[in-house]
Amino acid sequence: MDNLNLKIITPQKVILAEMVESVSIPTYRGEITILPHHVNLFSLLVAGIVRIKSSSKEDHLAIGGGYLETDGEEVNVLVSKAYGQDEIDHDIIFRAIENAKNILKISKDKKERAEASMLLRHSIVSLKLLKKRRHRTTTV
Questions:
Q1: Cβ neighbours around 12 below 10 Å, total
Q2: In CA terms, which of 5, 11, 19, 122 is 20 to 30 Å from 100?
Q3: Where are the alpha helices (DSSP H) in the chain?
């Protein structure tokens, strides 16, 4: 079976570099799935969950905004941040969500509200990632 060479890169480091069967990723127009031999594509990415399928497992990562480029053989994902379930603290996420909601309720400052809104969006993405099953093994 054909595979894709997937690279997920943040400004700090290469998060992932491996051969995969497919990758599903959130774009500004909705989620897309890249398979081997996909048409050339350059797309704007939004914060969300990336689903990575290989022959024996399915993994998930949360990403911040960024860009995707593919030629059907390689998929390069350049994002502001990327992290897995092991890097999320459940209690911190719930506190961040509550704090952001409180700021949005009471603050009149545009900058403070924008920051709280961004924190809320990223915290919700982290919460969704926590709800995904870890490293699911797929049966063929």
A1: 8
A2: 11
A3: 90-106, 110-131
